[in-house]
Each structure stands twice: as C-alpha cells, then as structure tokens.
Amino acid sequence: MKTKQIQGTAVKLSSGDRLFYAIMDVFLIIVLIVVAVPMWSTVTLSFRSNTFIGSNLEGMFLPPWKWSTAAYRSLLGNNGFLNAFLNSLKIFIMGVGAALFLTVPLAYVLSVKSLPGRKFLNLLILIPYLFNVGLIPTYLVVTRLGLTNHLAAIFLPGAISTYNCLIMRGFFEGIPEELKESARIDGAEEWYVLIRIILPLSKPILMTIGLYYGVSFWNDFFNAMLYINNNALQPLPILLRNILMASGMNEFVEVSAFGEAPIQAIKAASVFMAAIPMIIAYPFIQKYFTRGTLAGGVKG
Which helix (H) or strand (E) holds 86? Predict the structure, then answer.
C-alpha cells in the first residue's frame, strides 16, 4: 500500500484515497493544459513575422530561432503604448495604496468586539454589497466631485470593496484578543494597537487583499471608458480595446502607428505585455495568498 508524507509522518493511503488523488492529478493536468495552451499560443503569435505562412497550430510549434520581435519593438517604441502603460502603473500603485489605506481601518474597527453598535455598522456595510446602487448614481457622484479626466476616477469608486473588507475583518478577529488587551492596559490608543500590533501580524491578508485590488485596478476598463476622455490619460485596457477593435474591423488607422509588424502579432504582444506585471507580482505574493484567504474567511 502506498504511503504519503504529511508533516514528516508517513500515512498509509487506502485504495479510495489513491483513486481520489489520481482523479485530482488528472483534473489538475487538464486545467493546466486549458490555461497553458492559449497562453503559449498568444506568446508564439506575438513573435510571428510578416513572412510567416501557416496555420495557428503550426505557429505554436514555430522554433524560437525563427521568432521575430517586431511586434514588441513596435510597442515599446510607441509613445502611446508607453504612456498608457505608465498610466496603468500609476493607477495600480495609487489604487492599491488608497484601497488598503481605507479598507484596513474600516475592517479593524468592525473587528473590535467592544465597539458600540458593531452589529448595526456591519449591517450597514452589507447593504451596498447586497443592493448595488447602480451606474447612474455612481456616475453622478464621480462627475459632481470633479473626478472626470483624473486617474483617481478609476480607483476611488472601488477603493473599498465590501467583500475584501469582510475577509480582512475576519482575519483581524482571528488575532488573539489578549495581544490587543495587553497593549490597551499599557495605555495604547487604538491606532497604536492597529499600527504596532495588528499590521505586523497581518502581512498575509494585506498581500492577499492588495493583490485583489491590484488585479481589479490594473484590468479596469469600464471606469476608464466612462470617466477618461483625455487620450493622454487613457490606461492600458483602453488602448488594448482600440487595437483589438481596429484590427477586428480592418481599420488600420489605430494600429498603423505601431510599425510594420503583423496586426495579429501586435494584438498578441499587447495582451501579453499587459499581463506581465501580474505574472511577475504573483509569485512573490503566492506564499501569502492561501494563508491570507483562509484565515480571513474562517473566523477564530
């Protein structure tokens, strides 16, 4: 009978366990193929040259020494693409900073069990989560505040997510109350307890929620389309939309500025480059991801 190492201890596996692990292995391999094949197809498509003749399947097996970097040279040499990438980077940094700055205090306050009216405040937080106010009221608020054609209009409306706030609240509630009480007995104010005791213990949830916010702001297309009319402020998702729509409708005005690279290669290269920051960031955050999500989702 096969054994499995669990925390240094050999545990015998029954036939049912072996069948379960085999099914899970097959399932995960299928998921890997479903994710990897389109990604690899996009990468190889982005390296195609004007001289390539063949089907998409043949292009996926094109050897690297026949790849062309014309699409990437065209994108990196285009001021519009670099400006859009920089705008998205600004939105990402400012958005994650603002979101954590607002979400952390709110989640901590809601986690304090001695807070008067705590249940009522938690109910107020849940109401907008269950009943969305809709697009028109949000648009009126953003425009009345004068945020149109400002990058803040993209991340401020979603700077506090009820879902993320509740996960973070659950994590804070799981921190032993004795740590907080000992600091309060010594005369520490609540802000001191949050900054000096809670936050140093909360790196997993901060990384996890920061990743949630970061992915949301980096890929935000709808808010940018609504509130950004200045081409100099357009983020990367809007530029990608223009490229995809122009090439899809055979209107090459939008993509002619990217040089002589194939239109399909430019589309694939722009999509792949837009995903690079998240691909780079995720391995550094992944070790905190599961721990932060589970600790925040299960109280105690």
Answer: helix 79-111
Site of tokens 């040279």: 73
Question: What digits encode the pLDDT tens for the residues 154-178?
Answer: 998 888 888 889 888 888 888 888 8
Quick one: 26 and 105 in the same domain? no
| C-alpha of 42 from chain center | 20
CA 37 – CA 237 distance, rounded (Å): 23
- pLDDT tens for 76-110 read 877 888 898 899 999 999 999 999 999 999 998 88
> Token pair of 280, please?
């780079």
102 and 204 in a single domain? The answer is yes
Count of structural domains within the chain: 2
The tens digit of pLDDT for each residue in 45-80 reads 888 776 665 566 566 776 766 777 888 888 887 788
The CB density around residue 289, as the number of other CB atoms within 10 Å, is 15
Q: Is residue 299 within 8 Å of 166, Cβ to Cβ?
A: no
| pLDDT tier for residue 10 given thresholds of 50, 70 and 90 | low
- The 8 Å CB, 24+ separation contacts for 254-260 are 257/78, 257/80, 258/71, 258/74, 258/75, 258/78, 258/81, 259/70, 259/73, 259/74, 259/77, 259/78, 260/50, 260/70, 260/74
- What residues make up the domain containing 22? 3-68
Number of neighbouring beta carbons within 10 Å of residue 97: 14
Q: Is 153 exposed, middle or buried (0-12, 13-18, 19+ CB in 10 A)?
A: buried
Indicate whether 40 and 79 sit together in one domain. no
Residue 87 sits in the same domain as residue 27: no
